[in-house]
## 1
Amino acid sequence: MEKEDEKKGAGYFFDFSEVWGYYFRKKDPNRKPNLNLRMMHGINKIAIVMFLGALIYMIYLYVFVY
């Protein structure tokens, strides 16, 4: 219960290790290639990049335009 009550620092919110692991992981040689799974992961990667780009653009507008 104490762990849940701890305050999380800024480093917790800016920890992108899972994102980097998703983009730059090694291929599993034991896994059979599946076209549907590859397409799904490709679309997910595109969606993440577009979301981060839009987020950066919105922050830019908020900081420099308004």
## 2
Amino acid sequence: MEPANALSALSGARIVLVRTSHPGNIGAAVRAMWTMGFTDLALVQPRHFPHEEATAMAAGAADRLASVTVHETLEAALSGCVHAVGFSARRRDLSHAVVALREAAPAIVAATGEGRVALVFGNETSGLSNAELARCQAFATIPANPAYGSLNLAMAVQVACYEVAVAAHAYAPAKGRERLPATMDDLEGLFAHLERASLDTGFVDPVKPGRFLEHMRRLFARARLERPEVKLLRGLLGALEAKAAAAPSPVTPPAAAKPKARAKPAARKPATPSRKRTPPQSRKRSGARSSR
């Protein structure tokens, strides 16, 4: 759907809240609607409105509360609509099958081409009565956890508006800047540079290069490089090559000289034992005795 038609579909939808008990839910619903581009809100017998809690919960969309219409009956709120979809979370014996919201959303968008379409939500506690659902031509539900499928009223309104907006292709993610993929010439230049740098730096043995380049090709094939990224890598390789070329070549230190063998000390001759010298007196006495 064209953007103009999509916005027309959103403006052609009316959110109807029946017998809302908490005014804060009205303000939160207005905020949820405005987030998705919906502006038409009708209330049927709200317990409190206008109310300061509704204004507080609108939080940035409070000015939208001024356009909210209040009605005494559902029939009055549906006035001018060509199609109404009632929402219910409970299983009921109804004339029409209850359809998941995502399945119902395309039909809701298509119906806005014929006139205004109402999305009708009931009271927070009891929902829509069977008589109120009978006023609708289709029934929708928001699938949830069976063990706890209770959605807050404003949450249900948010989900419903979102699904209708998605079905209308109303919004698309903002486009980022254009990214230029690397060409084959860019990649071949990078691989040649990688090969040269790996050999010059000694990372790859030129005799046995192995599968280095094959692995590099597979790696960058998965990365899907862009042209600026190739330039960045080649700039890095060039800087590393320049750094390696400017580095002084390592100087081999001289071999350490072998220590000189120490000369063995000469063997000393054993000392000659000295003879005992006889004292002079002992010699005289011994001579005198011999003369006798």
